[in-house]
Amino acid sequence: MKILKNRFLLGILCLAMIGKLSAQEQENPNTTPNFANQGREWFVSATNGSGQLGTKERPAKDLGNIIHHLKPNDVIRIAAGTYLSRGASGSDEINVPVTIIGGYNESFTARDPWGDHKTIFTGTNDYQKSTDPRIYIRTDQQRESNGQLSQGGTIVVDGIIVDNGPRNRYHENKGLAIRRKADPRTNQNPSPGSGGIVIVASKFTNVAVQNCIVMNTAPSEGALSVRVFQGGKGIIRNNLTINNTGYGIHARTGYTGSNPELVPKFLIANNTSLFNWKHDPIATYGGDALALDQYLTAKIENNVFGFGHMGGILNKGAKIELNNNLFTGNAKYDYIEKGAAMRVDAILDEAILVDFNSDGNETQLIEIPMAERWANIYANRVELTRESVDAAVTVSNSGANQLRSMLGLNVQGSTVEMDAEIHLPHLKLEEALPVGQNAWNGKGCFNPR
């Protein structure tokens, strides 16, 4: 009964952060029998773990070793350590709603997820290792005994550090620029083109990701990605996403209707999302701190969105309320919707999708406690654009081109190096941690000890 009570209280807490609960919401009548399973506690310790009992006295060694045992509503508590998954594959995929809590000491009596008891999920760059998301929870395909899709329940990820640096392939092993193709000659994998924490929930499922760090990932979409379907709610709170391609945070929806009772609702609060890179050096996409899909609503407050190679917030059609957020150092815009890019001081005047009661958003220079080594690398990067690359292409008057021209074929241009010398340089965990320790005047993440 204790596990059931803890799980129930956690679900209520997640919902309560978005709005006042009704009696109907507390009972969650949309939860189907499969996802109403009581669940059990599991314990994982890289230091003391062995076997698959997963008890507090005999914890498992890695989450990946017990995934096949997990049932809906299980709670997994993970001690400090570095985790590579089963067989050092570098990816954990879970297909039922669970709660994952990291940052414990070895006796599971204290937590300090960004301090003394860091739970680090990473991998290796060995050839043919997984390139899937490091933590991938997908429950939308689960079915009941009658064949209908399961729905309801709660998914929580709390206190996990995802560092894809060791999973990436870097040019000449210098740690300055990722490479997206494998190199079988040197037994190296491609840099994974996937996020660090990716969640795809079922209908009416509530999701919370909080107190996590995601860094050095190279997706085209979200480094921290939460997809909520109809009737579900999402909380993305007190996370640090730093040095990723694509979008630092991605609020997604699996619903395409307009019923206000079913439209997914998000709370995105006290996150810090910095140094978001374009997908590749000449890409025209990626490079935003936060992206939001259409067909959802979101309350976005007390965040720091900075140093996006494109911008701060990319809104693809969501209706949002924007309060007390800090925008800094974004290259092209702080906010964009429907093709209209704007700086923070123009949002309330020009935005169509931002609630007119929004207030307190600002821009200012802030001092970021970055390590001098990485700061120097970042400051010395050279920005490439597709226009500059296209302009550098020349067409030779070779015999082959003369023949192609006579046959009505496109002539061939010279090849131009499109790989930057610096693109998503490897940021070390000890260099990233100081950035997330303290908020800026109440904005951004803070140490969750």
Automatic annotation (TrEMBL):
Identify the Gene3D superfamilies for this entry: Single-stranded right-handed beta-helix, Pectin lyase-like
- Keyword list, A-Z: Signal
| Signal peptide segment | 1-23
InterPro entries referenced in this protein's UniProt entry, alphabetically: Pectin_lyas_fold, Pectin_lyase_fold/virulence
Whether Translocase counts among this entry's keywords is no
Matching SUPFAM superfamilies: Pectin lyase-like (SSF51126)
Could you tell me what this protein is called?
Right handed beta helix region
Which species expresses this protein natively?
A: Algoriphagus faecimaris
